[in-house]
Write a structure and sequence with these properties.
alpha+beta; 7-stranded mixed sheet; 4 helices; 7 strands
């Protein structure tokens, strides 16, 4: 459904990959926010990013059909941990600061609630990713633990790696 700014979040379809891949590639190669191997191939990235059911991968597109961001949501762990969701988000560099990330997080929370999840947990948020940490906190997440030096930032060296959580009432 389109928002007031023309942003529409919808499920990923195979034809979207040609626009999603450059976003994933740029974010992963930068090595400053995700714990993915910066040398991963396109095939590895696709296998990692496209979430199998019961999870879902979505895209955020503008009114012209340009994909500005993408997210994946699903169970954090199988079995006894399957009642807690997790999600990951990537936004194109030239679309940051325009509310795309916030819209993707809200959508993930709505999908998780609709799916009956009790909460949402982010397992690996680099402490140096202050924009994401602030966004998640604004949307009700809290840092429940930090692995000291758990993330090897390409410029800052080892920084903390947060685990963040929020209930889904």
């Amino acid at each position: 459904m389109p928002g007031s700014d023309g942003l529409r979040i919808r499920p990923f379809v195979d034809a979207d990959w040609s626009q999603v891949w450059p976003i994933v590639d740029a974010v992963v190669r930068a090595g400053d926010t995700f714990t993915y191997d910066p040398t991963m191939t396109e095939e590895q990235a696709r296998a990692t990013w496209i979430e199998p059911p019961p999870g879902i991968t979505v895209v955020a597109e503008d009114a012209d059909g340009r994909i500005l961001g993408t997210a994946k949501t699903g169970p954090n762990k199988p079995g006894p941990g399957a009642h807690v969701a997790t999600a990951s988000f990537m936004v194109a560099a030239d679309a940051r600061g325009r509310g795309v990330g916030a819209a993707l997080v809200r959508d993930a929370l709505d999908r998780a609630r609709a799916g009956g999840f009790a909460g949402m947990q982010f397992n690996a948020v680099a402490a140096s990713n202050t924009g994401a940490v602030a966004l998640y906190e604004r949307l009700g997440f809290r840092i429940i633990g930090t692995v000291p030096g758990g993330f090897e930032h390409p410029e800052l060296g080892r920084v903390g790696l947060h685990v963040m959580y929020r209930d889904l009432p």
